[in-house]
Amino acid sequence: MSAFWTEADFDDHELVQVVRCRTSGLTAIIALHSTHLGPGAGGTRFWHYADPAGAMRDALRLSRGMSYKNAMAGLPMGGGKAVILADENRTKTPEMLAAFGDAVEALGGRYVTAEDVGISEADMVAVSQRTAHVSGLPVAGEGSAGGDPGPFTAYGIYLGIKAAVAHKLGKANLAGVHVAVQGTGSVGGGVARLLAKDGARLTLADIHAERAGALAAELGGDVVASEAIQGIACDVFSPNALGAILDDEGIARLDCAIVAGGANNQLARAHHGEVLAARGILYAPDYVINAGGIISVATEYLARRDGSHAEAAAVRSLIEQIPGRLEAIWQESDTSGVPSDVVADRMAQKLIGRG
Ligand code: NAD
Q1: 150-164 and 292-305 are packed helices; what angle lies between their axes, rounded to 10 degrees?
Q2: Which residues pair with 44 in a beta bridge?
Q3: Which one, of 39, 35, 28, lies nearest residue 112 by Cα?
Q4: How far is CA 43 from the centre of its chain?
Q5: Beta-ladder partners of 239
Q6: What are 71-118's pLDDT values in tens digits?
Q7: How far is Cα 285 from Cα 344, in angstroms, rounded to an integer?
Q8: Active-site residue, from 81, 92, 162, 168
Q9: Which of ligand 1's atoms lies nearest the C-alpha of 291?
Q10: What confidence tens digit (pLDDT) does each residue in 235-287 have?
C-alpha cells in the first residue's frame, strides 16, 4: 500500500485516524474531511475489505462526499465517515462497538457518527452508550425529527422531480408526467406514492418483482422487469436502488429527459455527468436531491445536543429548500455549460471554504 496521502482520494482531510484496540479486536478508520461548517457528520460502515487500502479509500472518499452533501443540504455540519474493518466472518462484538464509541467520544464531538452499510440501529444504540455524538437514533413518537430517514429522503426527491419537470419540461404539475422508478423500497416506494397523488404516470421495477407489483396494484401503473426499467421511454428516470448505474452503457440506454432519484453515487465516473449533459438529459445531482434523510437525522441530533426537541414539520420546511438549490445548480449549468454535477461540487467546495 502506498502512503495514503499520495492517494488520489486524499483531499486535505483535516484528520484521518486509525483506531486499533487490542482487547476488543477493533480496527477502524475515522476520516474527518472538513469541519468548516460544523462537526464532521457521516455514518459508520462495517465491511470486510480484501485490502486495507480499500478501507482507507472508502473513508477518504465517503467523508469528502459527506462534506459536500451536508454543505449543500444547508446543515451546520461538516463531513466525516468511519469504517470498521470486519474480518472474513464479519465478527461484531459489543466490546468492539464500545471501543468504537470510545474512539468517537475521544474526538470530543468533532465527528458525529450514524448507521451505514453493515451497522444497524441497535449497533448505534450500543455505540451511544459510550458517546453522545451519535445521530439517527430511534425517536419517540410520530411528528418528531429523526427516526427512519426513508420518508424524508423520498419527500425531497419528490420535490426535486417536480422542480426538474418545471425546469426541463416547463410543466407546473406532474399530471400525466411519466416517471420510471427503479427500486421500490423505502425511498423509491415513498417517491412513487407521492408522485401518484399528483397524477403522475408510473412505471415501476424492483428485483423483488412482487414488491413493485404490490405497489403498482396500490397506486396504479405498470411493472417492468428490473433489467428493462432504465431503457423505458419516459419523462423522468428515477433511480432509487443502486449506485453507478450511469456508466457509458447505462446512459446510452436512457430514453428520458430527466434523471432524478435517490440512489447514492449514480455517476459511475466523474465524466459521466458530462456524458449525460451531452445527451441533453437534465441531471439532479444525487447528493443534493437525496438529502432529506440526512436533514432529518442531523436536525434530530442538533436538537438533542442542545437539550431541545425538533419536530418533523421543521425538518420538512428545510427539505423544501432542496428544489431551490437544484434550480440554482441547473441555472448555473445552463449559463456556463458546465455539467450540473460539477456545478454542485463547486458550490459545495465554496461553502466549505475551499472554492
Ligand atoms: P431499500 O433497500 O429500502 O430499497 C432498495 C430497493 O431497490 C429494494 O426494494 C431492492 O429490492 C431494489 N433493488 C435492488 N437492486 C435493484 C435493481 N438492480 N433493480 C431494481 N431494483 C433493485 O433502500 P432505500 O433506503 O430505499 O435506498 C435506496 C437508495 O437510496 C440506495 O442507493 C441508498 O443508498 C439511497 N439513499 C437512501 C436514503 C434513505 O434515507 N433510506 C438516503 C439517501 C440515499
Answers
A1: 130
A2: 82, 115
A3: 39
A4: 11
A5: 182
A6: 999 999 999 999 999 999 999 999 999 999 999 999 999 999 998 889
A7: 7
A8: 81
A9: 43
A10: 999 999 989 999 999 999 999 999 999 999 999 999 999 999 999 999 999 99
Give the binding-site residues of ligand 1, using a 6 Å CB cut-off. Answer: 149-150, 153, 182-188, 205-208, 211, 226, 240-243, 262-264, 290, 293
- List, in sequence order, every beta strand (DSSP E) within the chain: 15-21, 26-34, 40-41, 44-47, 78-85, 111-112, 178-182, 201-205, 222-223, 236-239, 258-259, 282-283
- Specify whether the CB–CB gap between 63 and 42 falls below 8 A: yes
136 pLDDT exceeds 90? no
CB atoms within 10 A of CB 129: 11
The reply to whether 4-62+78-128 and 150-289+323-351 are identical in fold is yes
Catalytic residue flag (residue 168): no
- Are the C-beta atoms of 101 and 128 separated by less than 8 Å? yes
List the domain boundaries for the chain.
4-62+78-128, 150-289+323-351
Q: Which CATH class is domain 150-289+323-351?
A: alpha beta
CATH of domain 4-62+78-128: 3.40.50.10860
Average pLDDT of the chain is: 95
Residue 26 DSSP class: E
